[in-house]
Amino acid sequence: MSGNADIYHEIIVDYSRNPTNYETTEQRAHEDSFFKTTDVIFHDSNPLCGDSIDIGLKIDDNKVTDIKFSGKGCAICMACSSVLTEITKGKTLDEVRKIEKNDILGELGLEHLQAVRIKCALLSLKVLKSALYTYLADHLDNSQDVDSLKEDAANLY
Ligand code: FES
Q: Which of 43, 74, 80, 137 is the most buried (most CB within 10 A)?
């Protein structure tokens, strides 16, 4: 591995061991769980491996004030989910809509990831876009305004 590849590999392993903005199954079952106070939760899984991710958002004044994920995934999935939550927290809903796959892949040096691993890397982004779509469709008079978001999620990989 080249120097940069080594560094990115270490970062991914570190995130997978210590994911950020993450609740374990035990924490999630607790009455103080973040997921009991969210404005929207969405869940999806990777059909190839069965790994699955939930993302919960707290939204106030059109801004994501807090975000966490839970579930299980491989090291790439856990690292990308962590990075995604870090990128998303504090953004307006419009800014969140504009998050693209390269915003996450670029943070972890994964721009040239093999097709077979891309689902691992982008599962959380798919879940986030679907969560945002669900929230906006519930809160807008005309949900056609956000149908492109649903398509974005469906066409990520
Ligand atoms: Fe399951 Fe990567 S192998 S998400």
A: 80
Tokens read off for 101: 């796959």
- Tell me if 120 CB under 6 Å of ligand 1: yes
- What distance in angstroms lies between residue 51's CA and the mean position of ligand 1's atoms? 6
Give per-residue pLDDT as tens, 43-88.
Answer: 999 988 999 999 999 999 999 999 999 999 999 999 999 999 999 9
Q: How far is the CA of 145 from the centre of ligand 1 (A)?
A: 32
Tokens representing 26 are 């035990």
Q: Which two tokens stand for residue 127?
A: 């879940």
pTM flag (> 0.85): yes
Structure confidence at residue 107 (pLDDT) = 95
